[in-house]
Structure of Histone deacetylase family protein:
Amino acid sequence: MIIIHSEEHRLQSGRSELNDGQLVPCYEKPERADIIRDRLAAIGVGPMVTPDPHGLEPLARVHDAGYLSFLQSAWDEWLVEHGDWDALPLNWVAPGMHRRVVPRSIDGRLGYYSFDAGTPITAGTWRAATAAANSALTGADRLRAGDRSAFALCRPPGHHAGRAYYGGYCFLNNAAIAAQSLRDNGAARVAVLDVDYHHGNGTQEIFWERGDVLFVSLHADPIDEFPYFSGHADETGAGAGAGATLNLPLPWGTDWAAYAEALAVAARRIGDFAPDALVVSLGADTYGGDPISRFRLLSEDFLRMGAALAAMNLPTLFVMEGGYAVADLGVNVGNVLTGFEGA
Ligand SMILES: NCCCNCCCCCS
Ligand SMILES: [Zn+2]
């Protein structure tokens, strides 16, 4: 399985995030990709290549033009206004307020285009985010060229980024960008399966009214867990996308036995949809040792996850999302890919 990875990921290296009332060092940090890269090299998953450039067009197929130009200029504007500190929002739209006019203020626009204060914009954010999107796009190119599978080692992650907003450590929705690229280049139907611990609210929003892209997500119940405001089982899509979203929320404490049951439901739904390709938003924060998550998967369960994904028998693009138990992240991600290949 080919691995696509850009060292430009390390340009995204925030100083701190606001988490549970404290400014803490960022959980989404460069070491995450380093330990995955080194582990995959050590176990010989496959050749590692750098991404091909794809320009802005594929990004604009998924994201709002105003949002993309905001992302490109936010740091420079912040620097002039506030100096060399991470750009973090402080004000958001509350119920009853209107998001009618885009503020001129950079502080206003940070809040206008985001949903949390845990996702610092820095000098290198735009370059890191576009490199991650190019990794996902290069993976989509490889599937189109006939590869059975590919792994886009993306950082920063993407599944919380919507058409016109960032948050949850995500700026560009790498998995959605890859799914759209597959659709634009011959795939009639594409399924996106999100196995990250957190609901893929951004991916859901992007394909909410689309019947050509099925979105399925297993995640911690948003009644208790970030991102809190989406991912309930009664959210099933709208318009042409009615029935093309399947959310499988799971309680805190979920172990592999329970997780595997939900994954089997997801597999059946994907099988019924009969897509030409599968994009897996691969977050490993379902791991019992994850510092910000509350499922109880063991490292060996990721082997089983990989085998279950392979059993769907689809061309599969893995796109890296979350996973914050850095010391075990390489083993856990490597286990998914080993389980997938070995099946
Ligand atoms: N106390 C909950 C803080 C959540 N912070 C954001 C988590 C983003 C995960 C991305 S996969
Ligand atoms: Zn997550």
Remarks:
- The chain is about 35% helix and 15% strand.
- The CA atoms of residues 18 and 117 lie 6 Å apart.
- The chain has a mean pLDDT of 97.
- The chain has one domain: 2-63+123-342.
